[in-house]
Amino acid sequence: MTAFHGKSDGHVLPVTHPKRPRSPSSYGLTRRLLRSLVALATLLVLAAFFVLSHEPPPPPDLSIPEDRLPPLYHDFRQRELNLPHYDAYENNSSIKYFWAAQHAHSSGWGNVMQDYVMMALLAHATGRSFVFDDYVWNANGSIYSDFDGKLTPSRIPLSALLGGLMVGGPMLPGDNTPRSVNKYFFERVCPNPTVVHVSDVNTYDMRFNELVPVSDVFNTWVDVISAIDDPCVMLDPTENQVFDNWVFGKKRRMLPFWPTISRSPVLTSWDWSALVHAAYKRNRHLFKRFPHPSSRFVTLLDNLGLSGSDTPSSVIEGLMAIHVRRGDFEGHCRNLAKWDADWHAWNSFPEFVDKFEKPRDATPDEVLNMYIEHCYPDIQQIVDRVRRVRQESRSKHNLNYLYIMTNAPVSWVEELKSALAEDAEKHRQKWKSVRSSKDLELTWAETFVSQGIDMFVAQRAEVIIGNGWSSLTSNAVMLRMTNGFPTDSMRFW
Ligand SMILES: Nc1nc2c(ncn2[C@@H]2O[C@H](COP(=O)(O)OP(=O)(O)O)[C@@H](O)[C@H]2O)c(=O)[nH]1
Ligand SMILES: *[C@@H]1O[C@H](CO)[C@@H](O)[C@H](O)[C@H]1NC(C)=O
Ligand SMILES: *[C@@H]1O[C@H](CO)[C@@H](O)[C@H](O)[C@H]1NC(C)=O
Ligand SMILES: *[C@@H]1O[C@H](CO)[C@@H](O)[C@H](O)[C@H]1NC(C)=O
Ligand SMILES: [Mg+2]
User: Fold this and answer.
1) pTM, whole model, 2 decimals?
2) 85 is in which domain, residue-wise?
3) Where are the transmembrane segments (predicted)?
4) Residue 164: closest CA among 47, 266, 285
């Protein structure tokens, strides 16, 4: 017999090892099952106790004052008047300041933000403390202003909108530039500043020559300010902005400035106010899979650090945000057609998928239609565009939350939401959620800085569709580009 046979034989032998008798075995199983069940029950009780021990956050005060008077943000203003570094700066003559007293005001936040960004860049590049003022809607000394029949604050302290270094937060480690100060502090420590006249520096070419890049204008200004020894420098309050508003629409002039602006801590450390962050936090369930703020699970997830990152550079996964610019754009888009206007520079990076080709050899009606399609699309055009962009993104992005950023009236937004939801269902790509700016649960104070909340979402959504002519869109795009979002995640109507 060979060894092979022997092994083979072994296999056919009947199993001889002793078997346990049946009944004790099933008894053992039951015991084990019982023990597991007890353990599981204990765990569930502990988990329930753990969850229940996390109180949901107290319900926010979402009431509107009876007189409906807008908030005045006294606490924010008070903090701006008493920033912690003021004491150290007050009698230190080596701290230098730059105060652009002619800063942009009386226009939308997007335009004001552009100007504040440029002036903060100039302050930083010259080693001076950036002096900040309010977001001023009406500079005539009134407390409230009328906006489309609604009262609005004439001034909002900048720190109600912004956080971080723009409003006096610390500089990055190793950056010795003095921190920002409020203009009231500047006026106290600099009663007799050196006044620079914008018109003495800005030549005709610097303002109007299409061949002069903004980087050259900026460098000229850095030289001018750097040559001043006086710690106190102020731009004449009666003059124009250093960078005229329309320059931001000139891509040939603006884009050469991108390497400078995108590396500056002004943008890399850009942040929104505590108010904006709080509003975002309360409304997280509109942008991603997250429990409603009244749920104990919110506190639990927050306490365990499982809520995900909500920094300005973190992506909100699965979210498509669309900027549906309404209101004054109804007339404005027609003017843009007459003016042959281009998209904002930051909406015109050559890497972007969507580019605005100005119509050539077209009748005035064709031109107008083209501008309307991209600037003031109707519901059907919006629905078609959203479906198309979502499909084109499918290989890279699994978009299932849709957020409509808009200043449109509620009734129209509801119509748009239904149309978007229906269309997605028809194409078997149902959205998990379709929400809009009008669905945000906001305190009265947050209501008047809602553009900041929407921008904080737009700068972090996985994909956006924006309005090429809107500065609100372009500022969000600028922040996305700073934070390295892929260029094909920024789409336009
Ligand atoms: N909350 C919110 N406000 C918006 C939106 N779009 C426009 N607005 C309001 O309208 C203003 C738009 O002006 P601006 O920021 O200058 O941007 P632009 O006019 O689009 O270039 C903003 O400051 C907001 O007050 C939006 O999507 N969300
Ligand atoms: C700065 O100097 C003035 C005048 O000497 C003095 O009154 C003030 O208390 C000083 N401020 C600080 C914060 O030290
Ligand atoms: C004044 O400010 C300069 C520049 O930030 C700093 O180096 C210096 O230590 C400060 N002096 C005092 C007395 O605090
Ligand atoms: C300021 O301007 C607003 C709107 O233009 C006007 O209604 C108001 O009367 C003005 N207030 C003052 C104090 O001039
Ligand atoms: Mg505007």
Assistant:
1) 0.90
2) 74-268
3) 33-52
4) 266
